[in-house]
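User:
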Amino acid sequence: MTETNRRTWILERTWDERTPLPRRWVLPGDSPTPFDFSAHIRRLCDDIVLQCPEFAHINTRSMLFTFTPARNRNGFGLQARVTPMRFRGGERMRRIGGVRYVAQRYTVAGREMLYLVTFCLPRFLDQSFAEKLVTVFHELYHIGPLFDGDLRRHEGRYTVHTKSKKDYDERMAEWAKRYVTDHPEPQVFEFLRMNTKELVRARGGITAIAVPRPKMIPMCSV
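Assistant: Predicted structure:
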């Protein structure tokens, strides 16, 4: 790859006070203070990390909570995903075939983001309360135990969900149930009890952070 071609790639995206994170309407409304989905889901994940020892390795300050528009309102489509910002083992660079790739970097207020957690909206919001909470636990558990920008990897062929996604989700459901039982501040997850229409009616619209999906950038042939 030539030097000229390399310069067409954005190696690092940076947001700060002068260039704030882009925010979009999920569903527009007429309120000057619409429901901020990204802020609420971050607050929920902060609390899960605090309350649940299985997630104690997570530092949400190095995570970006965003949304992508759902192509339809079909409840069986993608609900959420975690995008690791580094390669296996937390490496910044990886060689595939004869090409070296570097992971695009996202920096917010001077801090490098290691994971991008993206929810498909409004589809995610139209699940049941239990389904939404399990989805959140499901995505958080994908985060690697070293919190190095890589995903949690399991033994065998099924490195992401283990050999049974059903068993994986059942475990998440158990943890989610334990989390909400006798929780001292249930208001942190009460927004999950409302669907899209109810949130729009109550708050006059829904907004969330929306950023491009990070890329693997080819650096040069080797």
